[in-house]
Structures are given as structure tokens and as C-alpha cells.
């Protein structure tokens, strides 16, 4: 019985691991295959490293430009998110004032708002703003604008981020602030120089989670950037549709690798922090 | 400390976050509700107040009813299968002394860090009737007489194929959450159960499961909300609702109505239904899973 049980455990573990490794590894393998190799057995190993797929994907399919767009949208989104969430979280955690309970409740309710359907009104709102601008200046500004996209990314992440950061600030002893005030530091200096550095572990958690969320985001980018400039996930879907029609599979898999490689590298570097941070920060996905 | 400067400091710190939050989250949420009361093409200024009429039409819209059934089916199946597998593997990794434990933990979490776009693309390739991994594997076993399975092209199968991709991506995430809950259970409980001769299975049901029940409850509500979201993305990318509406879910139908059909008002009334539905469901689940919390 003992032996059989052990064997069963390993069979289960290895099957699940294989179900993840095989498809992901398969994509990597296919990304260096030559197009003619796709018509044989899909399990066959590539005959050589056909890196042209990547070069073609980057140049012809614009994945290079989309990559840059994704980098900008993600990093700008993170900067905006931290710049507005950190002070708000700090104040909500450390000071008593009128309206605090209401603000806390509103932000909590925000955790349950579904981005996938508020994206329609956001789109219409920006379209409206653009129309008014057109009348005055002759061109729009809000749609197809990567800064606005980053702003929307940051906004949708505010509830979770403020919640997580203010929970952390609540655990710090009051003595730090008192000492800073006695030394003559103002509120702002105390927050930036004393309290924010102590919150580093939570800030890292926030950055990791939102990096993954922003980098992988699809529906907001699809809706708010309807024309030329796209982010990687949106560009990938376009690539998929066009390459499938043209039966040009190598580029398609190269595109997939371009999207998933940064997150895989990040994950390998910080996997402990990520899974720990997840259980500290509660649920989010 | 000066009261006035404190007040100014608080306002200065809060306003940027609150402005962004109001403009891009609160206002759009209210507009979903407001727009659901209009018959409106969106791009024209021809906006007609119709009250609850959109909802009346919805109740008779066969495509909407189908999307409702599909959503509920996905929630139930994906939730149950994912939770059972996640809890089982969490228990194995925490309680059994497995070799390469860390390796398995790291691998299992990978799907969760991949974009839904990537996962959907991978699964589209896996499910492909001609070149796909599963079909070519099956044909190896079955030999020449093999007829390939249309995973995404067959109306009866497509919803299971979508469920498969959703389960694949969710297992690792919930496993890690349950592992955290299980590793805090003191070992003495298992030691004394061992002495009394309780089997592993019995220990699981009498000790582990009751003590992580609260974690499961919290994750369940979150799971349902995210299933509604994720099912939309998977469906949109893999099948766009097809074949013939067989894989349509709530939000994909809403998206279709709003953008492709340009009936924003009608689309938003689906948004309202989704909102009410997930709210009610969270309440119901909260009620039926309520038990006295066990302490250790």
C-alpha cells in the first residue's frame, strides 16, 4: 500500500508538470522551426535553429514596435500607480480624518468592479472627449494614446494597490513618525524619506503583480488603441490571424515567445517573492 | 503639529488617486447602469430612453440565454475540477515528503504568469485538428483509422475545450494559496492522528480540509468573479463565441452587442446582469459554505 501510494503521487505530479512543460516547450521549439517543418509530425525536433522567424516577426509583423509600446505602457502605468497609490495608502493607514471610512469603502467596492465591462463606457467617454477636442483643435488626443492607456491601467489597479500598501503601513509602529516630527521633518518628508523606504517589500509585491497584469493585459489595450499602435498581446492576436491565413507558422510561434519570455524570465528571477507576496496580499489575478 | 498643514497634506495625498479612481472606475460603473436604460447605437446622438425594456428583450433572447447557460456551466465545472486538483496537489506537496518539491511548485505556477492571449494561442495550437498536439498524439495511438477531434469546431465539444484551458491556467494559482493555508497547520495534529491509526485519506478529510475551509471559501468567491472574466477572454480569442454561438459567454455576447452590433444600451444591460449575477452568487456561496471556523 505504501509503495503504491508513493508511485501514485509521483505519477500525478509528473503528469501535471508534463502538461505544463510540454506545451510551453513545444512553442519554444516551434519558434525556431522552418515553415516546411510544420507540415510533418508536430512532435519532431527542429532540424536547425531558424532564428529568422524572430527577425521577421520583429520587423515585418511589427512585434518590435509593439514590444516597445508594451514596455512604455507597463512602466509608465507602474510609475503612475505608485505615485498616486503610495501617498493615498499612507494617509489612509496613518491618519484620522472625516470621510476616511467612506473612501475606504469605495476603494473596497472597487475591488469587485469588472474591468471587462467598464471598458465600454471608458471607450465611449474617451471618444467623447476626442470629439470635443476635434471641434476645437482639429485632432483627437485620448484614444490611441499610450499615456492614456497607462493612466487607465494605473487607475484600475488603485483599489488593490492601496489596500495592500495601507495594510502594510498599518503594521508600522508610530514611533518612527514621532521621531521624524521631533527632528523637524514635515509630513511630506516623513512620508518620502522615512515611511516609504520601509514599505519596500510591499512595494516590490505591488510592482511584480501589476507588471504581470499590465504586460499581459489584452481587452483594455484592444479597445482604447483601435488604430496603428498596439501592445504586444493585441499585436500577437493580429499576427496569429494573418499568419494562419498565410500558413506562416514560424513567425506566429516566434511572436508567442516574444510575449511570454519577459514574464518567464521575471518569474524565474523572483518566483519565491511572487508566491510569497501572493499569500500576503490575498487574492488577485 | 499644525492642523491646517495636516489637512492640506491629506488632501494632496488623496486627490490624485481619488480623481483617477473616480474618472476611470466609479464613473464608468455608473454609466454601465445608466446606459442599460437606453436604446442607443453609441456613435449617433440618437439616444432613446426605454427603461427596463432592454432587460425584457434579454429574457427572450435565445443567444443570451445560451451565453448564460455556458457561463454557469463553465463556472461550475472549472471551479469544481480546479479546486479538487489544486487541493489534492497542495496536500501532496505540503504533507508528503516528495523529491523535487520545489521544482514541481515552480512549474505548476507557470500558467498563471502567462497572458491569456498566450495561453489561448497555445491551446488553439494544441487543439488544432490537423497539426495539433493532442490529435497527432491520438493518431499515433489509434493508427490509420483515426478521425481527428474538432476540439474548437464541434458544437458539443467546444465548451469542454475552453474549460480545459481555464483549468490548466488556474490550478497552480489556487494550489499556492492552499499550500500557504496548509503549511500553517501544526504537525502535532497529524502525529497524534498517526498514533491513533487514522489513514492518510481520513486525516485529509478530518484535519486538513476543515482547517483550510476558510481559505477555500474566500478563494471561491474570487474564483467565480475571475472565471466570468477569464471565460470571456478565452472565448473571445479562441472561438469568438462559435461555432454558431455554442461557446458564447456573458461578456463575449456583451462585447458583440456593444461593438459589432453597435447596440451599446443593450450590451450594457448584459453588463448589469453580470454585475447582479456575480453579486448574488457571492452572497449565496458565502451562505452555503458558512461553517464554524475551527481554530488551532
TrEMBL record, chain A:
InterPro entries in alphabetical order: BP-dep_ABC_trans_perm, MetI-like, MetI-like_sf
Residues annotated as domain ABC transmembrane type-1: 67-270
A Pfam family that the UniProt record links to this protein: BPD_transp_1
GO cellular component, one term: plasma membrane
GO aspect biological process, one term: transmembrane transport
Major localization listed first in the record, in broad terms: membrane
PROSITE patterns reported for this sequence: ABC_TM1
Alphabetized UniProt keyword annotations: Cell membrane, Membrane, Transmembrane, Transmembrane helix, Transport
Transmembrane segments: 7-29, 71-93, 105-126, 146-165, 203-225, 252-270
Topology of the protein relative to the lipid bilayer: Multi-pass membrane protein
Protein's cellular compartments: Cell membrane
Domain of life the protein comes from: Bacteria
PANTHER family: DIACETYLCHITOBIOSE UPTAKE SYSTEM PERMEASE PROTEIN NGCG, MALTOSE TRANSPORT SYSTEM PERMEASE-RELATED
Protein family according to the UniProt entry: Belongs to the binding-protein-dependent transport system permease family.
Record's protein name: Carbohydrate ABC transporter permease
Species whose genome carries this gene: Senegalia massiliensis
From TrEMBL, chain B:
GO cellular component, one term: plasma membrane
Membrane topology, from the record: Multi-pass membrane protein
Alphabetical keyword list: Cell membrane, Membrane, Transmembrane, Transmembrane helix, Transport
Principal localisation: membrane
TM annotation in the entry: 9-38, 72-94, 106-127, 157-180, 220-243, 263-285
Keyword Cell membrane listed: yes
Subcellular location(s) of the protein: Cell membrane
InterPro entries associated with the record: ABC_transporter_permease (IPR051393), MetI-like (IPR000515), MetI-like_sf (IPR035906)
Domain spans labelled ABC transmembrane type-1: 68-285
Family membership: Belongs to the binding-protein-dependent transport system permease family.
Protein name: Sugar ABC transporter permease
Source organism of this protein record: Senegalia massiliensis
Amino acid at each position: 500500500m505504501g509503495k503504491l501510494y508513493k508511485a501514485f503521487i509521483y505519477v500525478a505530479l509528473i503528469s501535471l508538470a508534463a502538461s505544463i512543460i510540454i506545451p510551453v516547450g513545444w512553442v519554444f521549439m516551434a519558434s525556431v522551426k522552418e515553415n516546411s517543418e510544420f507540415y510533418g509530425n508536430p512532435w519532431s525536433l527542429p532540424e536547425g535553429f531558424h532564428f529568422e522567424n524572430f527577425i521577421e516577426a520583429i520587423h515585418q509583423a511589427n512585434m518590435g514596435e509593439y514590444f516597445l509600446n508594451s514596455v512604455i505602457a507597463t512602466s509608465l502605468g507602474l510609475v503612475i500607480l505608485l505615485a498616486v497609490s503610495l501617498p493615498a495608502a499612507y494617509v489612509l493607514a496613518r491618519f484620522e480624518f472625516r470621510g476616511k471610512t467612506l473612501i475606504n469603502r469605495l476603494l473596497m467596492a472597487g475591488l469587485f468592479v469588472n474591468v471587462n465591462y467598464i471598458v465600454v463606457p471608458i471607450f465611449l467617454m474617451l471618444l467623447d472627449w476626442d470629439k470635443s477636442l476635434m471641434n476645437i483643435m482639429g485632432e483627437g488626443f485620448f484614444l490611441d494614446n499610450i499615456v492614456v492607456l497607462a493612466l487607465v491601467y494605473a487607475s484600475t489597479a488603485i483599489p488593490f494597490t492601496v489596500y495592500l500598501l495601507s495594510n502594510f503601513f498599518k503594521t508600522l509602529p508610530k514611533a518612527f513618525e514621532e521621531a521624524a516630527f521631533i527632528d523637524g521633518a514635515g509630513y511630506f518628508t516623513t512620508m518620502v524619506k522615512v515611511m516609504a523606504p520601509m514599505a519596500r517589500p510591499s512595494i516590490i509585491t505591488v510592482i511584480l503583480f501589476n507588471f504581470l497584469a499590465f504586460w499581459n493585459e489584452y481587452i483594455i489595450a484592444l479597445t482604447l488603441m483601435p488604430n496603428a499602435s498596439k501592445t504586444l498581446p493585441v499585436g500577437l492576436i493580429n499576427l496569429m490571424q494573418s499568419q494562419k491565413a498565410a500558413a506562416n507558422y514560424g513567425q506566429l510561434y516566434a511572436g508567442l515567445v516574444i510575449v511570454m519570455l519577459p514574464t518567464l524570465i521575471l518569474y524565474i528571477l523572483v518566483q519565491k517573492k511572487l508566491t510569497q507576496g501572493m499569500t500576503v496580499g490575498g487574492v488577485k489575478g | 503639529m499644525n492642523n491646517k498643514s495636516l489637512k492640506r497634506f491629506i488632501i494632496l495625498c488623496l486627490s490624485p488617486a481619488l480623481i483617477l479612481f473616480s474618472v476611470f472606475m466609479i464613473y464608468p460603473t455608473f454609466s454601465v447602469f445608466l446606459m442599460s436604460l437606453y436604446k442607443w447605437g453609441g456613435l449617433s446622438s440618437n439616444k432613446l430612453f426605454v427603461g427596463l425594456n432592454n432587460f425584457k428583450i434579454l429574457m427572450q433572447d435565445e443567444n443570451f440565454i445560451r451565453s448564460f447557460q455556458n457561463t454557469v456551466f463553465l463556472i461550475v465545472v472549472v471551479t469544481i475540477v480546479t479546486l479538487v486538483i489544486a487541493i489534492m496537489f497542495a496536500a501532496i506537496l505540503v504533507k508528503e515528503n516528495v523529491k523535487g518539491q520545489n521544482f514541481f511548485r515552480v512549474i505548476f505556477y507557470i500558467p498563471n504568469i502567462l497572458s491569456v492571449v498566450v495561453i489561448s494561442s497555445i491551446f488553439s495550437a494544441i487543439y488544432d485538428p490537423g497539426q495539433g498536439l493532442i490529435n497527432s498524439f491520438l493518431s499515433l495511438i489509434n493508427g490509420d483509422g483515426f478521425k481527428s477531434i474538432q476540439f474548437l469546431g464541434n458544437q458539443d465539444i467546444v465548451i469542454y475545450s475552453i474549460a480545459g484551458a481555464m483549468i490548466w491556467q488556474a490550478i497552480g494559482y489556487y494550489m499556492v494559496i492552499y499550500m500557504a493555508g496548509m503549511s500553517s497547520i501544526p504537525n502535532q495534529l497529524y502525529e497524534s492522528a498517526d498514533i491513533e491509526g487514522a489513514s492518510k485519506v481520513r486525516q485529509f478529510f478530518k484535519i486538513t480540509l476543515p482547517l483550510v475551509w476558510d481559505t477555500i471559501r474566500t478563494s471561491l468567491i474570487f474564483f467565480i468573479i475571475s472565471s466570468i472574466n477569464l471565460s470571456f477572454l478565452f472565448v473571445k480569442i479562441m472561438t469568438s463565441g462559435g461555432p454558431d454561438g455554442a461557446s458564447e459567454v456573458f461578456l463575449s455576447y456583451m462585447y458583440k452587442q456593444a461593438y459589432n452590433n453597435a447596440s451599446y444600451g443593450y450590451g450594457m444591460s448584459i453588463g448589469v446582469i453580470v454585475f447582479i449575477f456575480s453579486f448574488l452568487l457571492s452572497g449565496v456561496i458565502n451562505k452555503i459554505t458558512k461553517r464554524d471556523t475551527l481554530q488551532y
